[in-house]
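FYI - complex with coenzyme A, inputs then prediction.
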Amino acid sequence: MNYENIYIEEEGNIAVITINRPKKLNALNKRTILELHTAFKELEEDDEIKVIIITGSGEKAFVAGADISEFADFSVKQGRDLAAEGQELLFDVVENLTTPVIAAVNGFALGGGLELAMSCHFRLASENAKMGLPEVSLGVIPGYGGTQRLPQLIGKGRAMEIIMTAGMIDAAKALDYGLVNYVMPQDELLPLCLKIANRISNNSPVAIKYAIKAVNAGFKYDTNGYATEIDAFGTCFGTNDFKEGTTAFLEKRKADFPGS
Ligand code: COA
């Protein structure tokens, strides 16, 4: 697929996806969602890529939401389909990706933008970042998982307030709430993401895949997190990564994981 609205840069084992519609504050239109879906799937298949970072182009926005111009005249059915297709194509894909995904929130992350950041495995923000779910100010509710993931990440009461007021919180409050793990000056955001990504890339990709699966299982209504953990824990014992990791430890050397 030819990418028009995103670009991908690779640095060693790390891929950085940049959403590139700065004039529209990187708003997520249909094409961008499809491009992101394709990019995430391709990078997940690429054994060389151990971590993915996603960010927005320009200094103002990560993503200022779903593209309002695309759905302003939608019917009930079109509205439902928009949410269902978006969740299936992008937000659920990111959350369940077997490759770790870090959001570098470098400015506004509103509506679908915050929902995208929340689908990522964790988030870092720049000092100028502002986050919110303004949908009720447009007469609609968050439809890309925001009503579920925000309470999971920061608790029900805080999430209710953010959703009902349609207001924005700044980076310091997001840090205080645990919505982001670190807040950095804008020019230090990507370097810190890369540093953390590098640390992750030294570990077993297979074990990380199962860890993501087990953590996510605890937040799904139809899976048992503890049972998933037990299964995944056992499965790890049959992997080459486990053999390499334990052997390297006993031989007092750094592990070189085959990723299988
Ligand atoms: N969908 C479509 N276009 C968007 C957009 C969105 N979610 N967010 C911003 N844009 C566009 C604006 O329409 C404007 O386009 P134009 O130059 O062709 O008029 C451009 O991006 C720049 O935005 P602008 O509003 O001029 O910037 P600002 O600095 O004055 O305000 C925001 C920034 C983020 C506060 C404001 O753009 C905003 O409120 N955006 C919508 C946020 C939202 O409700 N998101 C949830 C959608 S469900």
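Residues 24-25, 27, 64-69, 108, 110-112, 134-135, 138 surround coenzyme A (CB under 6 Å). The two ends are 28 Å apart (CA to CA).
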